[in-house]
Amino acid sequence: MAPAITHFLVGASLLLVLVTPIALRYDIDRENAIWLIPIGGVWGLLPDVHHITPVFETQLYALHNAAWMDLFGLHYTLDRQAIRVRYVESVFGAIGLFIVSVAVFWQTGRLRARAVASDGTPDRRLLSLVATAVAAGYGTVALGIAVSIQNGFPTVSALVGRDSVLVGGALLIPIGIGIGLFCGLGLETVLNLEHRTRPLSAALTGGLLGSAGWVGGVVVGVPMVLQISFASDAAPSVPFLHWGSLGGLIVYGTLFGAVYALVYGVFHEGSAKRSVSARGERTRVQKDS
């Protein structure tokens, strides 16, 4: 297993990163938010409770070895052999991740203040691109967790004729970017500006886009790519047609939509406030004159 400090720091880092878009959109008290660090750390360590519990040790240890434990700060992934043998690298990597996560979370306060107070209207295309990039990053991580839980990295690597966890994980990055572009264009097309800044509306729409991506990509696209890339009699059989892959893309789309709305909304919110203020000022001047 990975060192306890690694699990703690990775769990704390992931929770900080997860809350960062919310802190960017809404005015969260960052002094009280420091509690996210111990909460996230305990969350990442929770599967190791079998080490200290006086009861159900065998059952909890069996649960610890399940791939579902990736839901607790990537615990299962961190306990893989490839990471366990790199003790020093895992510890210092977790420390670096924690420092970066704290810095990013803390900077959201300044970024939000600048977005709200900034003069002028942000460029819509640039704002959409930034929101898409950030949301795609979150969605890709969520998709990676879903694939890891299903032990599906070797299956993903089969798209390029390989059978490797590392290749499958690396291949998820361009796949996640492609899905993000699809979801970003979908949100821009389907939702108007008001609903595009509402996390619930965007999340629901993103989930539907994820389902559409599963139909177009997994049901239709993947078999076509395999038939083109390989001879028809040598094309590998990739078992993507299952509920797990659909669930993974729905999770991706839902998280993508929520993060997209949170990031997009903070800049639109500042622009809207300035517009209301300007209209109020013009009305006051007209009344005075």
UniProtKB/TrEMBL annotation:
Keyword hit for Membrane: yes
Protein name: Uncharacterized protein
Keywords, in A-Z order: Membrane, Transmembrane, Transmembrane helix
Annotated TM spans: 87-106, 126-149, 169-191, 203-226, 246-267
